[in-house]
Amino acid sequence: MKFLYLLFGFITILAQAQENFVKINGSTNVNKFQCVNNKFKAENGVFTFTERKLPNIILKVNDFDCGNKMMTKDFQKILNSEKYPDMTIKFINFTKTQKSYNAVVEVRMMNQSKRYNVEFNIENNKLIGRKNVKFSDFNITPPKKMGGMIVVKDDLNLIFSLSTKI
């Protein structure tokens, strides 16, 4: 019986180690928020980065969870998920530096594309990248709530975590 518990625990840790996610962190004049999509996977379990094959990740906007039903619904409405159900993250270029990796990443949503230079590091077999972006990069006006008393700030912090073999 102890063996089964250990095996189950190992499988759970392994499954968690393979989890991919994209987090979008933002704030208002009152609070902070975080919306996460962790419902996507690589074809073979891990993302590969070779000259001939770089990832093209398709995220369902409705798979983002902001930890609060109302915030999640508002987030999906801001990104117009009914008309534009997908957000795409496409790696255009990927190079190794002495201490990290640099990538050109194209983010496409709501028929708008924007390219960003993103620095990635390897942490626990995961490729972790962070980039500051803005709603306005995609022609989105940050929303206001309660008659303008709550204002969402334009600045967002995008975090990528991808299981990989590099």
TrEMBL record:
Residues 1-17 form the signal peptide. SUPFAM superfamilies: YceI-like. The keyword Signal applies. It comes from the Bacteria. Residues 33-162 form the Lipid/polyisoprenoid-binding YceI-like domain. Keywords: Signal. This is YceI-like domain-containing protein. It comes from Epilithonimonas xixisoli.
